[in-house]
Amino acid sequence: MSDEALLQRLRDPETVNAAFRELVKRYQEKIYWLVRRMVLNHEDADDLVQNIFLKVYTNLHAFKGASSLYTWIYRIAVNEVFSHLKSMRKNVFVSYDTVSAKLENTLRYDPGISADLIQERFQKAMLKLPPKQRLVFQMKYYESDLTFEKMSDILDTSSGALKASYHQAVKKIEKMMLDD
Amino acid sequence: MMDTRDDIEKVFPELDDRDEKPACFPDAGNNPFSIPRGYFDTLAERVVQSCESGTHSMKGRRWSMVPALYAAAAVFLLGLAVIAILLSGEKSNNEPVLLTQQLDSRSKDSKYSGSTADSLLPAAASIDQLISRQASGEATAAFPATPIKQEQASNSHEQVLNNISDEEIIEFLLQEDIDVTDLTY
User: Fold this and answer.
1) What domains, with CATH codes, occur in chain A?
2) Which terminus of chain A, N or C, has less C-beta within 10 A?
3) Residues 36-55, chain B: which have Cβ within 8 Å of A?
4) How far is CA A114 from the centre of its chain?
5) Distances (CA, A) of A59 to A56, A64, A72
6) Would you give the DSSP letter of residue B33?
7) Does B27 touch chain A if contact means CB atoms closer than 8 Å?
8) Residue partners of A53: CB distance under 8 A and separation at least 6
9) Which of B20, B25, B51 is opposite residue A54, by nearest beta carbon?
10) Is the confidence at residue A23, as pLDDT, over 90?
């Protein structure tokens, strides 16, 4: 079933619940992994994924189809992830370095993460990136079917800027891994 | 300085096609994160249930609002305190200083002790009484011709006092049969 057909069913009160279940099944893994790579901890990711789909459900009536369903859900997910990272700062005077340090602790002690030496260096290096650049890098690196044009729609940033951001992230991570 | 989208596009047009994975990077398919067994089998059902009941609370978000609420409450209380201080200051400025109070404080002062300040107290009390009647707009037989505007009357005791001439005060004291023999200063 295409996204358009799914959307038609979502707009029909008689089929909305079944269609929504289908929508969650269709996007749950992509959304979960997008979130999990950013917050690292499974419980946080699970909580956020539920919030994201709850927002999708409650805002279905407001979705006018200006972008694709896929782009719209991703955009909600990205906003939710950034809100979560902001809330981890406790207040605006706490820098993202503190958040990175917290995430690094999660990386080190969370039993749900088992990384070999290279993977551990790679994950640590990614945490050193600013949150938006980390997101851009991870989206492109892990989701091979996601083009810069699609990312441009989701993140509301030009594809040129995203390419530059990704390229810089690759260089930074490579340098950090080699220096480590 | 490249900061426009077009400039960035010109410099990085080829990046989509370039192999951007250095050799030291792990394989993207190598996932270090584990999830509970059967997690995705039940996730959709849990999400749908929480959506239907609307019960899934944004617990993290709710707690993250607490510092903001504290800050808002602190600002509100600070504002109230500032208003209270300003109002109390204004009130004390408007409060009339009675002659009797002035003389009483002077008589307590060692410099004026036993001086004319003591002897003037009864007269001052009468003047205060007169002034307060004037301030409240009440016409008196003693000063029927002394016009005092309402706004002046509502101002301070001292302003009212300034509008009454010395002659009028002496005349009033005589009419009221107040001993003025000690009015020497």
Assistant:
1) 1-92 (1.10.1740.10), 115-180 (1.10.10.10)
2) N
3) 36, 39-40, 43-48, 50-52, 54
4) 20
5) 5, 10, 11
6) B
7) no
8) A24, A28, A31, B47, B51
9) B51
10) yes
A90 CA: distance to closest CA in chain B (Å): 7
ipTM: 0.79
Contacts with A41 (C-beta within 8 Å, 6 or more apart), sequence order:
A106, A110, A112
Nearest to B66 by CA among A84, A90, A94: A90
Contact A77, A31 (CB under 8 A): yes
User: What are B100-143's pLDDT values in tens digits?
Assistant: 666 566 555 545 555 555 666 666 677 677 667 666 665 444 44
Separation of alpha carbons A9 and B28, rounded Å:
35
Long-range contacts of the stretch A126-134 (C-beta < 8 A, 24+): A126/A173, A127/A100, A127/A103, A128/A100, A128/A172, A128/A176, A129/A169, A129/A172, A129/A173, A130/A96, A131/A38, A131/A82, A131/A85, A131/A96, A131/A99, A132/A82, A132/A165, A133/A165, A133/A168, A133/A169, A134/A38, A134/A169
Distance CA A114, CA A117 (A): 10
**A132 CB neighbour count, 10 Å cutoff:** 15
